[in-house]
Design goal:
The complex is a heterodimer of chains A (about 80) and B (about 425). With about 80 residues, chain A is α+β, with helices and mostly antiparallel strands. Chain A contains two helices and four strands, in the order βαββαβ. Chain B is an alpha+beta fold and about 425 residues long. The N terminus of chain B is likely disordered. The chains are: A alpha+beta (about 80), B alpha+beta (about 425).
């Protein structure tokens, strides 16, 4: 079975809580990549899920409940090309 | 757990993992070469006989290791094989699909050629001369990377690689200078075949069996070793007289444990090497694993204290040692400067209404590793790798802005990356 939907979640964090947030995000098994960045967002995370229901579940129940995350923006991937 | 890649996100940052793999492969290679040198110095004088024995022994060891590593472990489902810790793409021993098998057939046959020349040279020259010159393969790989469009080496990479290369050559200096016929054999048949070996191994490792699941390095080692042995034997059997077979029969039992040690070290070395190839460019991986040449010096010194004479002779010439120390300095500086210069960034792009699909145009820009079209607030997200911030700006961002329809570009520099 192959999971069909990939999505990026772009997050803004509260100051000084990056490490604990990364640790908690790392526990989410659907996550395939977590990047700590400078610029408009503080963390960009790549998720792989079966359907939008699962994506909803992860964003609303898992990610939004992590203390230290101020704002998130979810972008579902329509098409991806990679090397 | 994501079933596309069959694994959750890693606990260590990807940069750490890459350097750990590439350098670790060099460390393991040092051990395997040490085992070979002890065997050749103490027990068996005929390198071809030893090579023949040790290659087939290596295959036996690899098969048994892989069978053990295929055992599933752990309570939670799905249970993962023991080998998961060595390569997360590993499931169990398997026959690979047709395309990667063909790549491995080519890679293995070529590796057989270079292995044959390695043992042949070991019989006519000092093995310690051959090893550092074997690292000249980095030059061919650098050319290969230059030709491969997606992975152009930057000036910092070229500089570090040349520094490593010169360092490696200095470490290999011998009293009496260069031995031209040996050097020619190393440069032409041996290194060209190992450059192609590297190229095809990388191609295989990057082949996706299903989306997100790449060929695992453990099975790759098994199959390419099988092909290697076949081609190696095809070349060497005609050269092996009855005397060689008697030597093999006489020394086999004394050599078993040395060969097992060497095989296990080679196995780990190649698994790490191939995994590193899956993540980085050929010349960088080879430069990093050239650390084996530096490590060879302490291993030779310490080894000779434990088993005098078993690790080859050591020169007492102060001048040669000075050159060797220069060499070590160059290798270390080269490796450190490579590691210091690795910038990844993510770029989010918004386009004006009624813009056509620009995804292929974005992916065509050099340095773009991954390009995604998004549903939501933003339209595209790019994952970029380059060696410096200024190169990211001039080479990549400026080109994105020239694509018609791009309205806004936001760049985020990646500080830490987990995958």
């Amino acid at each position: 079975m192959i999971k069909k939907i990939q999505a990026y979640i772009l997050m803004e964090l509260e100051l000084g809580r990056t490490d604990e947030v990364v640790k908690q995000l790392g526990a989410i098994e659907e996550a395939t990549r977590i990047a700590v960045t400078t610029g408009v967002y503080d963390i960009v995370m790549l998720l792989e899920v079966n359907d939008l229901e699962e994506l909803y579940d992860i964003t609303v129940h898992r990610i939004h409940s992590i203390p230290g995350i101020r704002d998130t923006s979810t972008a579902v991937i329509e098409k991806m090309i990679s090397t | 757990m994501s079933s596309v890649s069959q694994r959750p996100v890693g606990r260590r940052s990807i940069v750490t993992v890459f350097y750990f793999l590439a350098i670790g492969s060099g460390v393991m290679r040092t051990f395997s070469v040490a085992f070979d040198i002890v065997a050749l110095n103490l027990i068996i004088a005929d390198p071809l006989a030893f090579g023949f024995m040790s290659q087939w022994m290596s295959l036996l060891v690899t098969i048994s290791l892989l069978l053990v590593l295929s055992i599933p472990r752990g309570k939670r489902s799905p249970r993962r094989a023991l080998g998961y810790n060595l390569d997360p793409d590993f499931g169990r021993v398997r026959v690979l699909p047709k395309r990667p098998s063909i790549y491995l057939l080519i890679a293995g046959s070529l590796a057989g050629v270079s292995t044959f020349f390695y043992y042949y040279l070991a019989s006519i020259a000092d093995a310690s001369v051959v090893l550092p010159y074997g690292q000249l393969v980095i030059v061919y790989l650098l050319l290969g990377d230059l030709l491969a469009e997606k992975d152009t080496p930057t000036i910092i990479e070229v500089q570090s690689i040349i520094s490593v290369l010169i360092g490696v050559l200095l470490i290999g200096v011998m009293p009496g200078g260069f031995d031209v016929p040996t050097l020619l054999i190393v440069l032409i048949p041996m290194n060209i075949s190992s450059a192609f070996f590297t190229y095809y191994q990388r191609k295989t490792k990057r082949y996706e069996i299903e989306p997100g699941l790449r060929v695992d390095s453990l099975n790759m080692r098994l199959w390419s070793l099988l092909f290697l042995n076949l081609s190696f034997s095809a070349i060497s059997i005609p050269l092996m007289g009855p005397a060689t077979w008697t030597t093999i029969a006489a020394t086999f039992s004394a050599l078993v444990w040395l060969m097992v040690g060497s095989s296990v070290a080679t196995f780990l070395s190649l698994v790490m090497y191939v995994r590193a190839l899956g993540r980085g460019s050929m010349s960088v991986v080879n430069s990093l694993s050239a650390v084996s040449v530096v490590l060879g010096i302490p291993v030779t010194l310490l080894g000779n204290i434990v088993l005098p004479g078993a690790f080859g002779s050591i020169t007492a010439d102060i001048f040669l040692w000075t050159l060797k120390i220069f060499g070590i300095g160059l290798v270390i500086i080269g490796i450190l400067s490579l590691q210091a210069a690795d910038v990844r960034s993510l770029v989010i792009i918004k386009v004006k209404p009624q813009t056509k699909d620009i995804l292929p145009a974005l992916f065509d820009i050099k340095g773009v590793e991954k390009a995604s079209a998004l549903a939501g607030k933003y339209d595209y997200l790019l994952s970029i790798k380059s060696r410096s911030l200024s190169k990211t700006r001039t080479g990549i961002l400026n080109r994105i802005q020239t694509i018609p329809g791009v309205e806004s570009v936001e760049t985020m520099i990646v500080l830490k990356d987990y995958r």
